Amino acid sequence: xxxxxxxxxxxxxxxxxxxxxxxxxxxxxxxxxxxxxxxxxxxxxxxxxxxxxxxxxxxxxxxxxxxxxxxxxxxxxxxxxxxxxxxxxxxxxxxxxxxxxxxxxxxxxxxxxxxxxxxxxxxxxxxxxxxxxxxxxxxxxxxxxxxxxxxxxxxxxxxxxxxxxxxxxxxxxxxxxxxxxxxxxxxxxxxxxxxxxxxxxxxxxxxxxxxxxxxxxxxxxxxxxxxxxxxxxxx
Amino acid sequence: xxxxxxxxxxxxxxxxxxxxxxxxxxxxxxxxxxxxxxxxxxxxxxxxxxxxxxxxxxxxxxxxxxxxxxxxxxxxxxxxxxxxxxxxxxxxxxxxxxxxxxxxxxxxxxxxxxxxxxxxxxxxxxxxxxxxxxxxxxxxxxxxxxxxxxxxxxxxxxxxxxxxxxxxxxxxxxxxxxxxxxxxxxxxxxxxxxxxxxxxxxxxxxxxxxxxxxxxxxxxxxxxxxxxxxxxxxx
Lengths: 235, 235
Ligand SMILES: CC1=C(/C=C/C(C)=C/C=C/C(C)=C/C=O)C(C)(C)CCC1
Ligand SMILES: CC1=C(/C=C/C(C)=C/C=C/C(C)=C/C=O)C(C)(C)CCC1
What we know:
Two copies of one chain form a homodimer. The first copy, chain A, has helices spanning 10-32, 38-68, 73-98, 103-124, 130-149, 152-156, 163-191, 197-233. Chain A is mainly alpha-helical. Chain A has one domain (10-233): Rhodopsin 7-helix transmembrane proteins (Rhopdopsin 7-helix transmembrane proteins). The first copy, chain A, starts with 9 loop residues before the first helix and ends with a helix. The A-B interface holds A 1, 4-8, 13, 16-17, 20-21, 23-24, 27-28, 31-32, 34-35 and B 1-2, 30, 33-34, 38, 41-42, 45, 48-49, 52-53, 56-57, 64, 73-75, 78-79, 81-82, 86, 125-126.
């Protein structure tokens, strides 16, 4: 039988809060699909898939945390391995609403994602020393940032897309920069301060959890806002 | 294995009843969305999210109560921390159907909510003496009431909105006054009468549960009524 959440387990409370917020977000994105014009429907579907997949993982992660107080690393990375590519697809869909986008852009974003996550996983799971693994992860992320700020993906935006789509693109770009930066900060506090990972588990998880609220839920809400605005304008 | 509800556990029965009513309400709001015109759909979505999130929490709270006979404080507040902001969003959506509403209104309602709930939580969870915590919570609620009766949010209503929207706004305002007043009454009977909190747990929970029926389900039904009426008028 499962353990009961303690009133002073704030990390556990954050797992719980977010798991519920993810359930609500999923229902929201799936239901609101029918309000937007056809070309925006897929974007809302994908937003809802991100929160759906994450919701299921949060239920499992919550359980691991509440029962053992240890970091649910493997569930976390399984979640990211599905949700980060979905976010990259989302990015690509927004880009495609602006212009014809070469498939190479998409594949480079995927390669960056994979390097980033494999780097992080081998470090957190203890296969490789935490510092070199961190560096590999950072290189993957830097590669994504290069692609969207200076590479082919960045050039696409210059063309004449509707204002709201352009501003969505630029907001999403900042989310991938500022919002995603929270994860390596979490990794730093979890593994690179010299304390034992067991002692830092609370900090690590609360930082990752907060980052997920921003990058999964807020990211989806931005897309919903553009989708609704654009659908109403095109009426 | 989980304990079985006893026929004389009336608090447990109220948890059970409400958890089921919330499931039904969720299905109702989500299904009825397709009857209303696009601008009302989000309001019904949000009503359904409130009851969905609450339904899940009531399943857990019910279990805690039936198995241990103790107050499920932490689940209750996690629920409120999601559903009260959703109700504030609902309020804001109705206001926005009347006029252009400055974002500051929304943020002030959120700040009031947070002060109210943090005050209540630190009191009920035992971090702070129950009386000062209660006062902090009351200040948060007073701040919300000020905003909607005398602040910027109250001024918006004066303009010429459709009758049904105006009357919905005024009903919602009274719900936030009279309906929400039931919660501090519950807190009073739970912690401020001089009896031990364990002895008062039944009273506390039955009062909170009744308040939730009104503030989650009846509140949603009011919105559903306006949405349906307005959608038919605009045909
Ligand atoms: C850079 C870096 C990291 C970045 C992780 C990121 C950016 C994860 C993003 C997850 C998202 C956005 C999930 C949303 O659903 C790690 C692996 C923590 C450690 C290695 C260095
Ligand atoms: C004023 C006050 C309280 C008010 C709580 C309220 C008003 C909760 C509302 C919950 C709702 C509306 C949930 C609906 O989904 C507390 C925290 C009990 C105690 C401190 C003083």
